[in-house]
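This is your field. Pick holes in the following sequence-structure pair:
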Amino acid sequence: MLLVAILFLALLKEFKSTLVSFVLRLWDRNSAELTQKLRECREKERDLRKLSESISAQQEFARWARNDRALQKTTDQRQQLESTLNQKQTKNGIGVKLTINALLYVVTGIFLITFKSAEVIHLPSEDTFWTPVQRMVSYPCESNLAVSTWIVYASSCCGVATLRNTLTIY
């Protein structure tokens, strides 16, 4: 059970960016409204551009000028919405990342401190390792014939990171 918990902590550490994006979606409901307004503004701008292309500026100048002012106003509104949305997403993203990182490090620290002397894996009784390596691998444990939680956690993190880098295709 302890080994599964260590692997779970290692996986959480490696895949925290996915966790951050999930929590950010749950945490920030207001950006969905801004995104909807931005989508509507883009559609309106596209329609006004099509209308502007279909109107002759020489023959129907008043109508073209009115459409051009509406297009300019819509473009400014879209740019303002994009700027607001980017600022909001950046601010929320930083807050969520800091919160999740702090929580993850606190939980990992508490877990490792609590189980620091727990023996995760028992080594065979005959001398299979050099004595200094055996002491290092079982450092906080009382027995030299065990692998400590710290070593299993560190190797799990390295293994998961290697696996993630191997499987990630860009």
Residues 117-170 form one domain.
